[in-house]
Amino acid sequence: MGGLGGRPPPVRPPESVTLKGSGRLREVELQDGLTVLMPPIPGVVFTTRLGGTSALPFASLNLSTSVGDDPASVAANRRRVSEALGISPEWAMARQVHGCDVAVAGKAGETPEADALVVPAQDLPVAVLVADCVPIALGGPGVAGAVHAGWRGLCRGVVGAAVAAAGAGVTAWIGPCIGPCCFEVGPEVPARFAAAHPEAPGCSEVVGGTLRFDLRRAAALALVAAGATVAADPEVPCTSCDPRFFSHRGDRGTTGRQAVVTWRPSISCARPPAPVAALGASLGGR
Prior knowledge:
Elements: E1 26-31, E2 34-38, E3 44-47, H1 71-85, E4 92-94, E5 102-104, E6 109-111, E7 116-119, E8 126-130, E9 134-140, E10 143-149, H2 151-156, H3 158-166, E11 171-174, H4 188-196, E12 204-207, E13 210-213, H5 215-225, E14 229-230, E15 258-262, E16 277-279
Parallel strand pairs: 4-6, 5-7, 11-14
Antiparallel strand pairs: 1-2, 1-16, 2-3, 3-15, 7-10, 8-15, 9-10, 9-11, 12-13
């Protein structure tokens, strides 16, 4: 039987995978099938497509209002995530344009044309939406942030701009994105990244006669170059391979969006979600 989006159902290994750095992403079912990936710190969650209310082709936890889904379903999905995490249902978000602008969020709502948000206020969730691009969570002294980094944004410097806006002492977590196994590109992609990051090692290789680009490696290199600490090895799931996630390429363009949601928990509100079960996460894709 096929899985969501016509891709095979995910295989769940028996144990979580420990990454090489200080971070660890675990797949956790929070409630009613709502499944997320979480590092071992409060205030960072990467959503999947599992556990929502949307119908195909947006089944089921689509969080975007701009892909053609029923707005009532999207609102219900955002409420489900918020309730499961114990956070405000009002998020600070941005109209993402694959650029390098960073917005400092002081209240909930949508900020025009930004691909990264930082928030100094406690208990205000910020989120960016993805379906193959790299979702990045930032945390530092007195700040949280979220970054949407596709190849264009990486080449335009969104990662460095976001880290600079967040300030010194930033730690970053890289979430699920399309892997080099599936991201076929033209020569302009590695050429533009090399021009923007001449100090970075190559992030592309030819596989089976096609050029592949490693977005997660590129994001990690950009983070380190900007002065951030990457909390874990970026061998996270490939959104195109793994049917737990929405994928623009894997779903042929018509699909939903998952999110990275991050916030600065206050002492009074910093209660962790109560998971139904911690499940094994295949953090390298299939």
